[in-house]
């Protein structure tokens, strides 16, 4: 499957989910969620976004440091706001991260490492999100508690397969004879690079504690934001009952098949809220309110994006630096030129 087909398939999946919700419930829950956003909730979401963005930027800075890619925290903070805005405004939910990796790679002169730093930073965050979500689902009693075991089993199998592939790749690359095909050696080198990135960029003793802490803190900020949205739309469940639902909805929202953030988040919210004794409409309203809060909180990224475009345009129109050109003085005789030439020689 080509990248274009895969992108179209993800977009179609998101549109289908939203269309099914509208057909079944109408547009009312979406409008209810948007109307529930007040100045107070919006201010709270923006304040939380500053903290979560700082945590994510610090996590990126740590991973880039492990991969030996130069990155300042201020640059990371601004770029992360920009990527969040692009993720919320563009379909797929990952184009902002791709843009962030490409810009970082070009600025540092190493496009491959720049992209890999962003990939591993996001992967580490999502892995921590999965682990914490499974732990919460297994700890707190809820109607969706049984989902924890399938998620844990699938993630465990994926981790085991990935570890076996990486181990085999390192051994094959180290012992492969010269007559092995170029394609096989290329795959072996790729697997070796992945294992090296994991060792230096995430699992290093000076890296992983910070990555873990930043990921948990960022996830907590997203959970609090969704809880605010749920309360604003009238969800009256106690915190211990609502927390597992929110964690599962946010895990579904991390699936990169959305249109501006819409799609799996509202579908998952409709299911888990109805399973908990609320209504599917309440779940969709909470998801829509959360989407509106997150989008509004990411608007500083639009300012960063616009400022960067203006700066690049100014650099492109900068006047040329004047170059000194020797003047021609006709009164200089051939004898003088010959004398200066002999002195210079």
TrEMBL record:
UniProt keyword Glycoprotein present: no
Record flagged with keyword Transmembrane: yes
Transmembrane regions listed in the UniProt entry: 7-27, 39-62, 123-141, 147-166, 207-229, 235-255, 267-284, 290-311
A Pfam family reported for this protein in Swiss-Prot or TrEMBL: LPG_synthase_TM
Organism: Jatrophihabitans cynanchi
Chief location of this protein within or outside the cell: membrane
Name the record gives this protein: Flippase-like domain-containing protein
Topology in membrane: Multi-pass membrane protein
Keywords, comma-separated and alphabetical: Cell membrane, Membrane, Transmembrane, Transmembrane helix
InterPro entries (alphabetical): L-PG_synthase/AglD
